[in-house]
Amino acid sequence: MDAGSEMTLKMERVSVRHGVRIWLSGELRNQQLDALRSEIEGGGPHVTLDLTELNLVDIDAVRFLNTCGARGVKVVNCSPYIREWMYRERNQEKD
């Protein structure tokens, strides 16, 4: 990948037994948050974000994922580095 190209975010929404699962793949950055917010809002009351194939996030994405979790959106299959960053960010907000 050259310096001018950007990794994109792929979102796939699938209806599951108890709601909607949104699979995220690639990179989640500030510029994609509005599109993801729309997908979540269109998913109904039981939305799960599956981060199995999410490779990279920025600070705005971490804060967004924490907000989702606080509002009842399940965040699953998170890589250890993203989970740790989310945890640290939540703790900083409490201080």
Can you put this structure into words, describing what you see?
The chain is of the alpha/beta class. The chain has one domain: STAS domain (Transcription Regulator spoIIAA). The protein is built from three helices and four strands; from the N terminus they run E-E-H-E-H-E-H. It has a four-stranded mixed sheet with strand order 1-2-3-4. Strand 3, helix 2 and strand 4 form a beta-alpha-beta unit. Helix 2 packs across helix 3. The longest helix has 15 residues. The termini are far apart. The N terminus is likely disordered.
Mean pLDDT: 91
CATH names the topology as Transcription Regulator spoIIAA
**How many structural domains does the protein architecture include?**
1
Low-confidence stretches: 1-5
| Class by alpha and beta content | alpha/beta
Strand portion, in percent?
25-35%
Oligomer type: single chain
Q: What is the level 1 CATH name?
A: Alpha Beta
Taken in chain order, the helices and strands follow as EEHEHEH
Ends apart, CA distance between termini: 40 Å
Report Rg.
13 Å
Helix share of residues? 25-40%
